[in-house]
Amino acid sequence: MTTRILIADDQEDIRSGFRLILDSQPDMTVVGEAADGEHAVALARELRPDVVLADIRMPRLDGLEVTRLLAPETRVVVVTTFDLDEYVHTALRNGACGFLLKRSGPALLIEGVRAAMAGDTLISPQITVRLLSRLTQAGPVSRPAAHPLTEREVDIVRLVARGLTNAETGAELFISAGTAKTHIANVQAKLGARNRVGIAAWAWEHGVAKAGAEAD
């Protein structure tokens, strides 16, 4: 099935760049563009895309409000230049299926759309690592405890805690991105984590993440 995407960004060159990236994928097509938040909401309700990519700072309605109005009926991935923690928390609280930085590159943009379609939440690795590393600053990390994970799954968890994508995790462990995705799904089930952010939080909280990983 083809994923139908709406792009909402007030910069025409950004919209054009995203369209080129996404339309190059055999399973994706851009069905509309909006230069402001109100138009984005109206187009989303008219075209009913599978995924909306929304910038945060747009005229008339910002991306956070667009997310609140459209989610959860429509999957919204926030793609922005601004990585303030307040924006991340508000976007996710409003129902966003992802929070990506524009500088993260084409591969993560594509993976973010696919993650949203799979019911997952993808956050740019730079943001994930920054947020999770603060868990260790709030107090001592607990000693590694007994858990149901295999040795390979622990390796996967450590890479997720570093903010690596499925493709990067696969490359690190010499497995395919699909195999990495399967391992992550198994880990989520075993840990009761909702998404990869939950996996990473578990790793930091239980001392499974390797010391110094946040600096990678």
UniProtKB/TrEMBL annotation:
Residues with PTM 4-aspartylphosphate: D55
Every HTH luxR-type domain range: 142-207
Any Pfam family matching the protein: GerE
Stretches assigned to the Response regulatory domain: 4-117
Keyword entries, A-Z: DNA-binding, Phosphoprotein, Transcription, Transcription regulation
Cited SMART domains: HTH_LUXR, REC
Signal peptide positions on this chain: none
The protein's name: Response regulator transcription factor
Species of origin: Streptomyces caledonius
